[in-house]
Specification:
- By secondary structure, this protein is α/β, with parallel strands linked by helices.
- Helices cover about 45% and strands about 15% of the residues.
- The strands form 3 sheets. Strands 7-6-8-5-9 form a 5-stranded mixed β-sheet. It has a 4-stranded antiparallel β-sheet with strand order 3-10-4-11. Strands 1-2 form a two-stranded parallel ribbon.
- It starts with a helix and ends with a helix.
Length: about 350
Amino acid sequence: MRLFYARPFAGACLISVLSVIAVAVPAAAQSVEEFYKGRTIQMPIGFSAGSGYDIYARLLARFMSKHIPGNPTIIPQNMPGAGSQRAAQYLYSVAPKDGSVFGTISRSMPVEPLLGDAKFDGRQFTWIGNIADNNSLCATWHTAGIKNWSDVVTKPFVLGGQGPGSDLDNFASLLKNVFGAKLKLVSGYPGGSEVNLATERREIDGRCGWSWDSIKSTKPEWLRDKKIDLLVVFAFEKAADIPADVPLIMDKAQTEEQRQILRVHLAAQALGRPFAAPPGIPEDRKAALRAAFDATMKDKEFVAETNRVRLEVSPSTGAQIDKLLADIYATPAGVIAKAKDAVKN
């Protein structure tokens, strides 16, 4: 009797186990193409509409989809706030970790945990790639009376910022704390577009952390009509088409300590226009997104469009970003402490 009842029970168990396996195997074996086919990818942009980051992100969204298996639709969504820290925290802690979300944040945000109060590890994002390295400038309105480096370190003026960790705030603070600039930082603007408007309205005198490619693409008339004065370039090397009389910030450093502090902050300029997914997405989807990004950088239509709207394309891969951030996070604690003090407002 025990055998008579045990056999159906064992059979039922076997059927149950096989049913679970049958359900689980297709999900586990789902290909990248099957996952993305008919899907929408959310692309949070940590800045307001019309900013340089926004322009790059929307352009990438237009062309990258065809290079992702399954050709999902990529939907850009502006998520400004605190110099893109809001978008960074969303990607790091809230967004699904399945490859259905990736976006763009400030180039300096991955280093912000070392220098500020950001509660994440920049190395843990799934880095997809970077469209262009960056030259950031400080610029003032032509009537502000701040025309050159000598004025920066001798005359009072007011700059606009976005929030802790943003290039606008960090570079303004570096001028003040490292070089003794007599500036006041008014922070809290949602994005660069709002800072530009406040400058034009003469509510403030100008801004730092303004990408050269963004100046050329969003305000070419300001350059043409000499509406702004370019003061200094935050980068290791200066782009060839920046006027020769605009100095590199590294050339203004007079001590080794100043140079060490600047190196920490300028390293982020190599991140330029970075794109990241949340930590821990599946490896096959990570590989697919990275490959699609790299393919987009070589896409003839994408390159033609970036040339038309005067955007720089000098890409780096997700793996290169991983290496750069590993190097930055390995900086000695003493240097990091000095660099951190240098961006306190």
